[in-house]
Amino acid sequence: MANKSIFNWRLLATIFLLISIISGGATYYFKIFKLREGKTFTIDPEVEIDPNQEYQITYWDYPLFIGQKDRYEEFLKKSIKEFNTLYPNIKVSYRLLSFVKGEDLLYQSLESGKPPDIYNNIYGSRLINEELQIPINLFWVPSSKEKEENIVKNDKDKYDNLALEALTYKEKIWGLPNWLLPQFWVGNKRVLKKSNLDINKIAQQGWTWEEFKDYSLKLKEKDYSIIFNPYNSDLFYQLLAANNKNIVSNEGKLLLNQKILTNIFENLNKLKENKVFPQRVTKMNKRLLPDFWQGKAAIIAPINMWLLNNLYQKDSKVSRVEMILLSIPNSSDYKSSLKVSSLLLFRQQAYKGDDHSKAVYEFAKFINQEKNQIISQRLKVLPAYLPLQEQWKREVKLKEEIKDQLILTSNSSRITSLTSSKNLILENKIKEIIDQNYKNFWLKNLTVDEIVQDILTSSQNLIDINKKQSQEK
């Protein structure tokens, strides 16, 4: 009888074990099935990080301390070590990418279904892959326990509204905002004053293209020049954004038209005709910095974050120059465009589970909230996480005038609407056409009409091919 009782207990234990395995397997199966069918991905708010399980997560970043890769690597190692005092079971491996090839590697990893868990997207707000990119707001859903205890998750309220808006598509937030960087041109205040330019007005309100053109003529009369880099098409996209225009609509239609393209290139062409640039425009890229520091160039553009930091460092050491940030001239509302960098979170095609995703989010949040102050101060960019901004204002090494301008412009800038990941791929192909035509405008003897027609015709051909391929799928 005793043996029979033992047998029954063993039988019951075996049945319960089988039910548990089948139940867990079914949960995993349905989760993976749901992902492959393209249905809405969710993260269970009830799932917690298992303190007895080891999680292996990958972080792809860039060596953000320019010229000091080893120092940045040491910063990352210390940050991971500090994080492990909170989560010793979450092991983080990092990879520092090349600024030139980093994005290509990310796209390759997505095509293989094996992206990194976290990617530091320093190039602006983008939805790169709707299938594998994880919306951040999924981690902000309260669990039933938190609801019962009236615990309010106010994570969203801790971030700059414009930064969140820049990362929002179809009511989902596709990245954890890192920094805000308004788009500026750089001017020499000492020179600009000689043309009676109302610098305070521009700093507060911005200026139109007509105002900029008039002042450029006044500067030319006094033998000062404007220098635009003919090899950097960022200037075109800044002017496009300043006119509140995107390249492709969410429906995959071309938003560029003859009027807006002609307006941008004709405005640039009039500057060439008025000879406000140095004599050899094809060599302006080589003269941009030397002429600025020698007090010959009144305004230089376009300026990226790295070049801006170089200018900040040298500004106080050059007597001929007093650096000032200038809003990009636009058509009407005087708003600058705003770039928002972010941490993008991904899942792999072979999904590792909701607890793994939550472990990934904890490290992303740690870097974004606990360590971002160091990076933001070093790069002199405003953190998007609001609790860090007051300390940044006190400690960042910038002139008060420039600091105030960064803050003011960040709070009143225009953001470019996020587009779908399919449209992003299409948009990148169209940008290749624009980039080449931008160079051709400066380097070849082509008319504005020839430049505009080539952009429109080639871009529309890409749109048509994309539409046909979508219909055939």
Which percent range fits the helix content?
A: 40-55%
Number of helices: 18
Give the total of domains: 2
Mean pLDDT: 87
* Name of the CATH superfamily of the largest domain: Periplasmic binding protein-like II
What is the CA-atom radius of gyration, in angstroms? 26 Å
The CATH first-level class of the largest domain comes to Alpha Beta
Order of helices and strands: HEHEHEHHEEEEHHHEHHHEHEEHHEHHHH
Question: Would you tell me the structural class of the helices and strands?
Answer: alpha/beta
| Strand residue content | 5-15%
Q: How are the strands of the largest sheet arranged?
A: 2-1-3-11-6-12
CATH architecture of the largest domain: 3-Layer(aba) Sandwich
Major sheet: size, sense and barrel closure?
6 strands, mixed
Number of strands: 12
Shape: globular
According to CATH, the fold-level topology of the largest domain is D-Maltodextrin-Binding Protein, domain 2
Summarize the structure.
By secondary structure, this protein is of the alpha/beta class.
Description:
- It is a single chain.
- By secondary structure, this protein is α/β, with parallel strands linked by helices.
- It has two domains: 55-180 and 339-411, D-Maltodextrin-Binding Protein, domain 2, CATH 3.40.190; 184-336 and 420-472, 3-Layer(aba) Sandwich (D-Maltodextrin-Binding Protein, domain 2), CATH 3.40.190.
- It contains 18 helices and twelve strands.
- It has helices at 2-36, 69-86, 102-111, 144-148, 161-166, 189-192, 199-205, 209-221, 234-242, 258-273, 284-293, 305-315, 354-370, 372-379, 389-395, 400-411, 421-443, 448-472; strands at residues 55-61, 90-96, 118-121, 168-169, 172-173, 176-182, 184-188, 225-228, 297-301, 323-327, 338-345, 382-383.
- The chain has a six-stranded mixed β-sheet with strand order 2-1-3-11-6-12.
- The model is unreliable at 1-7 and 11-38 (pLDDT under 50).
